[in-house]
Write a structure and sequence with these properties.
The protein is an alpha/beta fold and 238 residues long. The chain folds into two domains: 4-96 and 210-237, Rossmann fold, CATH 3.40.50; 98-207, Rossmann fold (3-Layer(aba) Sandwich), CATH 3.40.50. It contains eight helices and eight strands, in the order E-H-E-H-E-H-E-H-E-H-E-H-E-H-E-H. The protein has helices spanning 19-26, 48-68, 83-89, 97-108, 121-132, 155-173, 189-198, 208-221, and strands at residues 4-12, 31-42, 72-75, 94-95, 112-116, 138-143, 177-180, 204-206. A four-stranded parallel β-sheet has the order 2-1-3-4, with helices on both faces. Strands 6-5-7-8 form a four-stranded parallel β-sheet, sandwiched between helices. Helix 5 links the parallel strand 5 and strand 6 (138-143).
Length: 238
C-alpha cells in the first residue's frame, strides 16, 4: 500500500522553521508529508483579521492539492483559517489543529486548557470552543505574553513560560489536559508534560499539529471524509 499523502497548508507567507526540522516531530509511519505556504498574506496569524486574509490563497492551494492527488489537508494554524470553506471546496479531508485538539482533549480528559501566546487570543479560542461544541470541557485559556515572531529566538524563555502557565492551568483551573495554543510551539509537548510530572501532575499535553496529522492519516485509512450534506460544494461549482 502506498503512503498516505498529507499536505500541510501554511496560512502565512513564511516561517522561521525549516520543514526538515519540523518533520523530525511530524514524521509518521505510512505518511508522506508535503508543505506549502500562501503566496500572499501575513507573516503570522494573530487575529481573526489575519486569518481571513489567508483564506483565498488557502482555497487555491487546497484545489491544487486535490488535483495533484493529495489524500488529506492539514491547516498549520490554531485559528483554523478557512476550515469550513475548504471542506466545501474539496472532497478530500481537511482538518484544523484547533478543532482536532479540542475534540481529542474532550475525548481523553474532562477539562482542557489552551496555553497560547497573547491575551487577546483568549477570545478566539473561546469562540472556537463554542463553535466546535467543546466549550463545556474548556477550563481556561492562558497566555505567555509573546508574539509569534519571538518564538524562534527565545526557546528557553518559551519553554519556561509555557510550563508556568500549564502549571497554573492544572492548579488553579483544574485542567487535566493542556493544548499548546500555537503550532509555532511545535515539539514542546513532551517537555511540558515532563515538567508537569516533576511537580506531581500527570496531565496530558497535546501538540496540535502532529496530533492532527495522525488524525488525518486515520481518517484517510478508514476511507472517510467530511459529509457532503454538512459541507456541500458551492452551487456555482456543481
Amino acid at each position: 500500500m502506498n503512503d498516505i499523502h498529507i499536505r500541510i497548508l501554511s496560512p502565512v507567507v513564511s516561517t522561521n522553521r525549516s520543514f526538515e526540522a519540523e518533520q523530525a516531530v511530524l514524521a509518521t509511519s505510512g505518511v508522506q508529508l508535503s508543505k506549502v505556504h500562501v503566496a500572499h498574506g501575513t507573516r503570522s496569524i494573530e487575529s481573526l483579521h489575519d486569518s481571513a486574509l489567508s483564506v483565498p490563497e488557502l482555497l487555491r492551494l487546497a484545489v491544487e492539492a486535490e488535483q495533484e492527488g493529495v489524500d488529506a489537508l492539514v491547516i498549520d494554524c490554531m485559528a483554523d483559517p478557512g476550515l469550513m470553506a475548504l471542506r466545501e471546496r474539496v472532497a478530500i479531508p481537511v482538518l484544523g489543529p484547533s478543532q482536532t485538539a479540542m475534540h481529542l482533549a474532550a475525548l481523553l480528559g474532562h477539562r482542557f486548557s489552551v496555553v497560547t501566546l497573547a491575551r487577546h487570543l483568549r477570545v478566539l479560542f473561546g469562540t472556537a470552543a463554542a463553535s466546535y461544541g467543546t466549550a463545556a470541557s474548556m477550563a481556561s485559556c492562558r497566555w505567555i505574553d509573546m508574539a509569534a515572531g519571538e518564538l524562534a529566538g527565545s526557546q528557553d524563555r518559551v519553554r519556561a513560560a509555557v510550563l508556568a502557565q500549564a502549571v497554573k492551568a492544572v492548579e488553579e483551573d483544574k485542567a487535566d489536559t493542556i493544548i499548546l495554543g500555537c503550532t509555532g510551539l511545535l515539539g514542546l509537548a513532551e517537555e511540558v508534560a515532563s515538567g508537569l510530572n516533576d511537580r506531581g501532575y500527570d496531565a496530558l499535553v497535546i501538540d496540535p499539529l502532529p496530533a492532527t496529522i495522525r488524525q488525518a492519516h486515520a481518517i484517510v485509512a478508514a476511507g472517510l471524509s467530511h459529509s457532503r450534506d454538512a459541507y456541500p460544494l458551492p452551487a456555482r461549482l456543481r
